[in-house]
Amino acid sequence: MRTVEATHRVHLVFSLFDADGNGFLEAGDFALMGSRVVGAVPTAPDARKRALLDAFHRYWTTLVTELDADGDGRVGQEEFTACVLTPERFEETIDAFAEAFAGLGSLEDDGLVTRPVFVGLMRGVGFQRPNIHALFDALEPTDDDRVAVDAWAEAIRDFYRPEKAGIAGDHLTAGVVL
């Protein structure tokens, strides 16, 4: 069963991914978002940057393949919500995206992400700074203010789960008007 929180999370993601604000997701929106996120961590290894760009491309390809029945190369919000909140249609894509996105932040290749890098990556997507810090804190940072890549990737997966409520990712929607 789809929760209100899950629907709200996905509406927020749609609004952030709609980079040109035209009410539709298109290939260019994902290319722009990918370049913003990769640009937030210029010192990340090139292989991880490529993996994230590939994950953004796969995300788009899955959406357009699953949803673009009329072949116009774009996806509306209702279509997006229906696909993304249907795990059997989108789970593998989200898994790859979660691993690539969270993994990009481990600049020391130790499985941990510092707060500044976490904030930079999340700002690259467009999330609000106070909400980003609340999410980081919910991921239980270490004493030296780093979070585990695995915990972050799992939080990303949870963000797209239709039955989830009261999860760390819900911090990202606090105070956001859609």
Structure description:
The chain has helices at 4-17, 27-39, 46-67, 77-84, 87-104, 115-125, 129-138, 149-159; strands at residues 24-26, 74-76, 112-114, 146-148. The strands form two sheets. It has a two-stranded antiparallel sheet. Strands 3-4 form a two-stranded antiparallel ribbon. Helices cover 60% and strands 7% of the residues. The protein is globular, with a radius of gyration of 15 Å.
Summarize the entry for a quick read.
This protein has 178 residues and is mostly helical. It has eight helices and four strands.
User: What is the helix content?
Assistant: 55-70%
Oligomer: single chain
Please give the order of strands in the largest beta sheet: 1-2
Largest sheet: 2 strands, antiparallel
Distance between the termini: 22 Å
The SSE order reads: HEHHEHHEHHEH
Average predicted local confidence, pLDDT? 92
Uncertain segments are: none
Using DSSP, what is the number of strands? Answer: 4
Task: Report strand %.
Answer: 5-15%
Shape: globular
SS summary, helix count: 8
**Structural class given helices, strands, pairing?**
mainly alpha
Q: Whole-number radius of gyration?
A: 15 Å
Features:
globular, single chain, 8 helices, mainly alpha, 178 residues, two-stranded antiparallel ribbon, 4 strands
Note the topology.
Elements: H1 4-17, E1 24-26, H2 27-39, H3 46-67, E2 74-76, H4 77-84, H5 87-104, E3 112-114, H6 115-125, H7 129-138, E4 146-148, H8 149-159
Antiparallel strand pairs: 1-2, 3-4
Helix pairs in contact: 1-4, 2-3, 2-6, 3-5, 5-8, 6-7
